[in-house]
C-alpha cells in the first residue's frame, strides 16, 4: 500500500528515464522508485530518517541516496529537466503566483468566487491530465530541491570559521 506522497505510475514513467544508473562498482542499487518515494514521504511528513516506514526499504539506503543526490546536484537536475520538458510542451504558465502566506489579501477578498474558474488553455481532457501529472511532479521535485537548499544553508551556517 502506497502513501499519498508516492509517485503515480504516470509520474514515475516521466521521471525514471532521467535518473542516474548504477556504475556497477558498488553493486546493484535498491529500486529507485522505492527510494524516491521514501524521500518524498520523509520530506512531506517531516519524520526522522529512522522512522521511515519499512515499505521504503532500509532508512540508511534512502538517506544515503538522498544525501548523495543532494551533493551531486541530481535533484536540481531532475527539477530543471522536468520543468524544461513541461515548458517545451507549453504546459507551464510562468505568470507570477503569490499566495496568502506572502501577501495579505484585502479584506474585501474574503468569500466565495463569483465567476467560474478560467478554463485550461490546452483543450482536451487528456491534455489537462498530462499537464496536471507534470505539474504535480514538478511540485514534488521542487519540494525536494527546496529542502536540499535549506539543508545546505544550515550546514554552511553551522561550519566553524577559521581565520
TrEMBL record:
InterPro entries: IS402-like_dom, Transposase_6_like. NCBIfam families: transpos_IS5_3. This is Insertion element IS402-like domain-containing protein. PANTHER family: BLL5188 PROTEIN, TIS1421-TRANSPOSASE PROTEIN A. Residues 7-78 form the Insertion element IS402-like domain.
